[in-house]
Amino acid sequence: MGLDANLMFFVRHWFVDPGSERHRLEDKAMVKRRVARPRSTATSGIPFLGVSIIFFSLILAVFLYSVFTRHPHRSSPTIPVVTRVQVLNGCGVDGLAARVAKFLRRQGYDVVDIGNTPLLLESLIVDRVGNRDAAQKLAKLLGVKRENIIQQSCDYLELDLTVILGRDYKKLTLQ
How far apart are CA 156 and CA 153, in angstroms? Predict the structure, then answer.
């Protein structure tokens, strides 16, 4: 039933003699047609339902993509960890600990103490906090053998590594 038929029904019902038999029969026919062809509620909301399904499907797809794909984590810039070092002269050469300390400071180390210790044949790196990687990095920088890295924790010293310069100091790389 189109808009014109509905308009005609309204006009006849209200403006034409409602008592007329002809109009009453036409009105009954219109009512029967209206009852016989009820509006389909299943298809009346389809466009809205279809758009809603598509919209929520897209949102779900974006969510699942963001959850299951690997993204490089954007983290705040890392603050460089400054390794605190103690340099001890164990070879008897005056001023050697100060020269090594100056070299290490240029390389970014925080030299917190310089001093003397009893004489040693070979140079050592003493790991004070259990950071083997930092000890190996310093050993490589100075040219100290890996087997000359030892671990000895010390809670009262506020430092990470101790360099003990031995009589093999001439083999060290201090450039």
Answer: 9
pLDDT tens digits, 106-146: 999 999 999 999 989 999 999 999 899 999 999 999 999 99
Instruction: Identify the architecture of domain 84-171 in CATH.
Output: 2-Layer Sandwich (3.30)
Residue identified by tokens 């010293």 is 157
CA–CA separation, 166 and 97 (whole Å):
11
pTM, entire model: 0.55
Parse the chain into domains and list their residue ranges. Answer: 3-68, 84-171
| pLDDT band, residue 36 (cuts 50/70/90) | very low
> Distance between CA 155 and CA 143 in Å, rounded?
27
Give residues with Cβ within 8 angstroms of 18, minimum separation 6.
Answer: 24
3-state secondary structure of 165: strand
